[in-house]
Amino acid sequence: MPNTRAEPREASPGRTHRWRSILRWFDTADAQGYEPDGDRVDWLRATPFIGMHLACLAVPWVGVSVVAILVAVALYAVRMFALTAFYHRYFSHRTFGASRAVQFLGALVGASCVQRGPLWWAAHHRNHHRHADTDQDPHSPRIRGFVHSHVGWFLSPRGFHTDWARIPDLARYPELRLLDRFDLLVPVGLAAAVYGLGALLERVVPQWGTNGPQMLVWGFFVSTVVLFHATVTINSLAHRYGSRRFDTRDDSRNNAWLALLTFGEGWHNNHHFFPGSARQGFRWWEIDLTWYGLRALAAIGVVHGLKPVPAWVAERARR
Ligand SMILES: [Zn+2]
Ligand SMILES: [Zn+2]
Asked: Where are the bilayer-spanning segments (predicted)?
């Protein structure tokens, strides 16, 4: 006799999975039921990310203005600095000190980049250094190919998973855990603010030719999508193209173009050889905008204790 109840019972795990994927757009806390090692893209959970890309296609409808471009560039610059200085050099590598308020501010601006919370980011990145270009590396072009190292990893169940064992020093801050859990909140807040700015400028200075929708598309969507792809070139391109000054165990490269685009992160072979320094350009001509920014912040007392490039590393970089 056919079991009429078997059908719905079998269908329910799929439905539960789909429902959870949608739920985690808003709240990432319930990570149970996800396979941490699944490497295929979770398309449903990736929908907001894909939507962000599609929103950029609205450019022909909203038009363009000088002020919208300036806001997009400014938001790229401020947020790239937050990613490299705070998400990467502070949270992931602890290469300088900051008060709890400054730490939170860095995390807040970092969270507006739509690259998830600081704990998630640091946990993945610490695993990247630990296992660089082995099969346990979250995003190695050597292991799972170029597209996966650039974007596929970011949208897979394994990519969504946070490895809490890697970040006990950060997980003790409730305010950081909050940013991590509700990682959509800050981006939505920024998008609303950018829209509001456009609407305000339309009323106050209509001759500037902008409005809410135009500012939203350029200032938030285009800026954020370019920011994302620039950031992840360090996982993909900077493990393929460039020079290798240090014979590290991984495939990391130094690439001046990527260093300009990412405010210093392109000196990636330097960084893999010695990740403990707040500076990634080891020679004076290796432009590292984040390092200059951190020096300026240290000079006015916002951050402190920038870890320099040790003399023995600087000496080897000169050879
Ligand atoms: Zn790397
Ligand atoms: Zn790193």
From this structure: 50-78, 182-201, 216-238
